[in-house]
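pinned: reference chain
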Amino acid sequence: MLEWCFYALGLGALVALVAGGFILDAVQNDLEQARIRRGTFVSIIILALFIFAVVKNFFDIRFIHRQASLTNKQIDQLRETNNIYVFLNSSEPSLFRDHIDNLHEIFRRDCTISQDNLVTLLQARLLAKTRVVEFCSSILVTLGLVGTIIGLIQSADGLSAVFTAVSGEGESVMEGVDAALGGMGIAFYTTLMGAVLGGVCLRLLSNLVDANTEHIVSHIAELTEIYILPILRKAGRINEEHQRKLREKGVGLPPGVPVPGTVSGKKPVESPMPATGPENLAE
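pinned: its structure tokens
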């Protein structure tokens, strides 16, 4: 979170120093063109979309920061409770808790446990959540190009009006020149805003969130690999051994199947025993 604030303040100061005056001029030019003739408001749209993307990026980084804090807090809670089942029922919802819950659910159905697919899905889900800012970055660059094309079209129309009015009144000539210069202003301003705000600022902030996303996913996978999976795998081996012994005694065999090592047709003694589980970490 502190890193994001540092980057955001640094980029804000750099943009204000290098292109702040041009951005203000672009907005004023858009408003003036709208007053004189039909305006495009491309610069204003770019600025509004940039502000929205920065706010969304801030909430994304705050969510990741909170999840990282919860992960560190809940691994300590899991150590204290020493019981996966108690932890899942008493802990606050988080990415780490959901990951452990999914692993526990897999264990209940299959003793062979791997978190590779879950880690991939977790990373994909988080990146999809933060993909909006990256999309806005591309949109701002595209809007800058659109504004350039619109500005050039208006400039061409203004020059056409100048050539048409050369033999007429000087006032018509000045109106054409003003339209041509206004169109050139829109073309240059929107290109600058799209490149600086979208291609530089949002791209850097988006990459920062992506880097933190990959960090928290790898951190959750590391903690799980160290503290959770060994317990579940050990419990799975114990459970398989227990089931093997039951099968050797004929417990749980279908009706009519002889107990191994006995006379064929002799009814096995049924005394079902509960399977062991991974709930207690101390086991």
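why pinned: Helices lie at 2-36, 42-81, 84-90, 95-109, 116-164, 170-249. Residues 176 and 230 are 78 Å apart (CA to CA).
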